[in-house]
Amino acid sequence: xxxLHTTKLxxxxxxxxxxxxxxxxxxxPDTGIFALHDDIGETGIPGNALYSPEKQNYSITxxxxxxxxxxxxxxxxxxxxxxxxxxxxxxxxxxEGQHSHRxxxxxxxxxxxxxxxxxxxxxxxxxxxxLQYREEQDGETREMQSEVKSPDIIQLERRGNTLLMSVxxxxxxxxxxxIEAAGLKDEVMAGLFVCSHDSSTTETVTFSNVRFxxxxxxxxxPYQDYLGSHLEVLEMxxxxxxxxxxxxxxxxxxxxxxxxxxxxxxxxxxxxxIPPHGGIPQPVNTxxxxxxxxxxxxxxxxxxxxISHHSLEDNGNSVIYRLPVEGGTPQxxxxxxxxxxxxxxxxxxxxxxxxxxxxxxxxxKIPAEGGRxxxxxxxxxxxxxxxxxxxxxxxxxxxxxxGTMQLWxxxxxxxxxxxxxxxxxxxxxxxxSPDGKEIVFISYGPEVDAGDHxxxxxxxxxxxxxDGGDPEIVAYLYGGQGxxxxxxxxxxxxxxxFVSNSGVWW
Length: 506
Known about the structure:
By secondary structure, the chain is mainly beta. The protein has one helix at 6-25; strands at residues 36-40, 48-52, 57-62, 67-68, 71-72, 74-81, 85-93, 103-109, 118-124, 129-134, 141-145, 153-159, 162-168, 175-180, 188-195, 203-213, 228-235, 241-247, 252-256, 263-267, 270-274, 282-284, 297-298, 304-311, 317-324, 331-332, 339-344, 350-357, 360-367, 374-375, 383-388, 395-399, 406-410, 418-419, 426-432, 438-444, 457-465, 472-479, 495-502. It has three domains: 1-30; 36-213, Jelly Rolls (Sandwich); 228-502, 6 Propeller (Neuraminidase). 4% of the residues lie in helices and 46% in strands.
């Protein structure tokens, strides 16, 4: 019997899964992450939890006098959880509300009784935000208040016996408080809750960008062990995110084709294309180049794609090639290695890349047909992530020359190098919008080494004007390496695509 190519076999299996899922969905409502929802305690009016598959958000309605002292009444959408995890959502109270202490948020709970031990990240109607907890069955409720009022991003993370509540107003960095919760059982009910603070009425809260993340275990070996991946699309004007494809293996670095037909990403050395609204991924024929990393970039006109393939004849080092975007036989561009592609010039005449030469990583450019490479930066610290502006006047890049990884730009000949970001974060991979007005980039915390951009960290995606300014956060996520290594703006500049990560929890 003729053997099926592994990719084709996986596609057939996935297609069968989709068909089976469609049949199941015709019988069972799509509840998203949370398969269960219940009224806890004496709520007065029954609550409800609705999930919108199209918007990927939750609308939860709850009644109940309080979640405090002897009162413990609310509506709860939940699932079982154990081990370490990260719960994150954007929260919005609907309407003016009947009580200033209506409340909503994340809750970890041991059982359904009104006096169950619980730890909850809570936002009140009047803006009060706190980590509320009851450590023993029918015990006293306590709280730790956050300095942030009326946040709309709320995260609750479990790391062993430690719980961390992180909250922010959208666009701003997290503020975090933590507590030791050694008495909390490993197996808990984890989910979203709403309490009206008045059993004679209900309140409704919308939760969007809801994520239930299983982070990397302590024994994960980087670049050997991998978590699963969500391919996401974010609307820049609203911050609304949508998962368009989920994989149990690592997928990385989506490019958005200029014709708006596909996202192109890499996985396990190969390239794949998928429509930006989702579907079944299809392999891109890259010929002999089957060890591609996440440094692949489309020309501005979308006709060619440059790839970085680890060539056996170059001792496994990364070499840059080009080929038609629909696939074909790669043509070598760089004679020297390792070379990691990051950008094309708008006229398609040059590619720019990071090259390691004599133990130093700098930015180079070379004619797209191959030839003599031209060194653009010369620093003992790492320079990386180069990308042309659409008008060709600047090359944007990141550099660790000031001690932390910051964003810079220079002229195409390497002159007029100027720093653009100046804060405590480590900023990587500046991507310029199609209209040339702003940049999106990924930011690691100061605990990450300036010269590293590892997998599986808490990171921000941020935006700012191309000339510099105060960056604002557009996405809070668990990711890092492979999240947004390559240009991934939609052609109209309204969306970006990226990858977030999680271990398999279903």
